[in-house]
Amino acid sequence: MLIVKKFGGSSVADKDRIYNVARRCIEDYEKGNEVVVVLSAMGKTTDGLIAKAREINPNPPKREMDMLLATGEQTSVALMSMAMSALGVPAVSLNAAQVAMHTTSAYGMAKLKRIDTERIRHELDARKIVIITGFQGINKYDDITTLGRGGSDTTAVALAAALHADACEIYTDVDGVYTADPRIVPNARKLTEVSYDEMLEFASLGAKVLHNRSVEMAKRYGVQLVVLSSLTRAVGTIIKEETKVERMLVSGVAADKNVARISVIGVKNEPGIAFKIFNLLARHHINVDIIIQSIGREERKDISFTVARTDLQEAMTLLNENREVLTAQTIACEEGVAKISIIGAGMTSNPGVAAKMFESLYSANVNIKMIATSEIRITVLIAEEDVNRAMRTVHDAFDLAD
Amino acid sequence: MLIVKKFGGSSVADKDRIYNVARRCIEDYEKGNEVVVVLSAMGKTTDGLIAKAREINPNPPKREMDMLLATGEQTSVALMSMAMSALGVPAVSLNAAQVAMHTTSAYGMAKLKRIDTERIRHELDARKIVIITGFQGINKYDDITTLGRGGSDTTAVALAAALHADACEIYTDVDGVYTADPRIVPNARKLTEVSYDEMLEFASLGAKVLHNRSVEMAKRYGVQLVVLSSLTRAVGTIIKEETKVERMLVSGVAADKNVARISVIGVKNEPGIAFKIFNLLARHHINVDIIIQSIGREERKDISFTVARTDLQEAMTLLNENREVLTAQTIACEEGVAKISIIGAGMTSNPGVAAKMFESLYSANVNIKMIATSEIRITVLIAEEDVNRAMRTVHDAFDLAD
């Protein structure tokens, strides 16, 4: 079997953890498997490098930032290889140029285009464990790029696809995907498996297990993922194509507090206004979620939507600067809100799921401000102060507990 | 003009020093020159990385060590490029793979074979300052190598040769080459220029200004070097081919305390014994300096020589293990010794230089234990406790003071 194993920064933060990871990889190797390991930078290394750069130049060129950040993963892979060598197992570390991992040219947010597998195959054939830098690539100028947030997960998935791996294991701080955040819902249950689409919804709704990009790539190339903890031996969660004939109506509940509501009030009731608003925000890379358009008055209408709270200030500035073009009378915003979502591939064929969710929130006296639905999720906007209570209520209503 | 400027680790140890170096490079750039900068790792970075590696594995694989160490210079060049960018000057950092700097495969002690200049030329033509990692290269496997001690100086000289640079400036802690160590001989004088051969003797005799490898390469390719300080504006020392018709008899005095004497006593007076001794040591990379062979007794003779004090223990172990093969009766050693040398291209044609040195040492009551001479230097072994007094005496005898 060819196994790709990815470990995040906290899994290789110090000597003990490096050896812990080395031993887990060697276990697989000694069973006769081919083992490819993908590593992030150790602990807080990347944050430290960013701080160092900003001390020199508050607005460093992105190309040079990537040149700097890439040293973080290179340090991890070299030290891991040394640890495996100390344990008597032949290993070799490779950076993105050595592999080579070809990406687009967009420094700081490059996308993987193609992975050469020749060098990796050569080293695997020599019965070595191959340890590869996550998060980084090279572009057509031979310059180093980085993949942005969730980059190392994406590296692992892309490698698994390129190498036709039999398994792709993502080791994180948590030991799987839960029906809800266990810190808020103590009786939350770990899911044995979820579909790619459900995982995408979980990820975009605040579950910090896997970044969307890696899940999207896994779905596109049919790479089956397992999410596990590097510190325990607990069985993880499998992420794969939907296969079960009968399954849970709802897989889990997710909450996201990084949200704010914007209302563009009193715009002219004519075509193109909504386009202008969302195009303006999109051009500045501000994502918009739940959108509601009033149909109340004749000449004027209101358009409300949510953005990430971290984007609120920029969004408000942009909208106010363009208030006249947008024909808006006022632009208002609200910060003390949160999203709560239920996710489940089973809900498409089951009417009444939304009603059950709304009923449980009503019975808990939680007011719903906005609603958005997709094939496999229902999201409501509520007051931030209600969010933990709402999660537990909904979790109970769908019998998700252990 | 194309100028290669090399700065050591202490010259880029922190933000202020990085900016100091950036400004000095920009001065040359703004005069219309093409500027290539070679950097070492910042301050004690390399030592820190070595310690980190040894914590993981006391005997780390050399390939992985080079993979790790190379991150040091990559960090320096990225930060330097950011500083120049903050000062409004276009700059680009390149690591050894991006250049590419082709070396032999010997990890930790690779030798430069060939430098591709295409990428550097391309960036210079775009009017950028090009900042290149010293000390490192890539071998035929695309693996990262390091050049060993004095590596960054060698990188700079090799780049100057490959780019047909008009100047190669080596910035160090000191502002040039002196007639003697100014800490010991307060009235020592800075030399305006020295020949490659003299510099080689200075370097191998304990002057820490430049490593021999870089001087040898400069001599081979006719690269004229200037040694200067990154912290002052003092005129440095030029190192070039001998040109002056008339010149100083003696250029300077050097002392080396990293020395010990070994005596292999009572070996059989037959051919091949000396070969066996020095071959044994050479195979273990132990360099031998002053050699004296007694011609006293008929059947047995003594062979004495000096080694670096740091090699003494290993040398003694090796010799004792092979005592019977070497036909030796005893092997003795002495640690409290030092070498003092006078260096000067003028001495070849001037008899009496040695006599003058010996006379001055005699008048200062310094006992000479061993003597070795070359075309341009005379070295004597004396007691370590006499070394500072001996230096000042000889320095005065040859009128080297300011």
Automatic annotation (TrEMBL), chains A, B:
Gene3D superfamilies: Acetylglutamate kinase-like, VC0802-like. Keywords: Amino-acid biosynthesis, ATP-binding, Diaminopimelate biosynthesis, Kinase, Lysine biosynthesis, Nucleotide-binding, Transferase. Residues 262-333, 342-402 form the ACT domain. It catalyses: L-aspartate + ATP = 4-phospho-L-aspartate + ADP. GO terms for molecular function: aspartate kinase activity. Its EC number is 2.7.2.4. Pathway: Amino-acid biosynthesis; L-threonine biosynthesis; L-threonine from L-aspartate: step 1/5; Amino-acid biosynthesis; L-lysine biosynthesis via DAP pathway; (S)-tetrahydrodipicolinate from L-aspartate: step 1/4; Amino-acid biosynthesis; L-methionine biosynthesis via de novo pathway; L-homoserine from L-aspartate: step 1/3. Pfam families: AA_kinase, ACT_9. It is an enzyme of class 2 (transferase). Belongs to the aspartokinase family. Catalyzes the phosphorylation of the beta-carboxyl group of aspartic acid with ATP to yield 4-phospho-L-aspartate, which is involved in the branched biosynthetic pathway leading to the biosynthesis of amino acids threonine, isoleucine and methionine. This is Aspartokinase. It comes from Hungatella hominis.
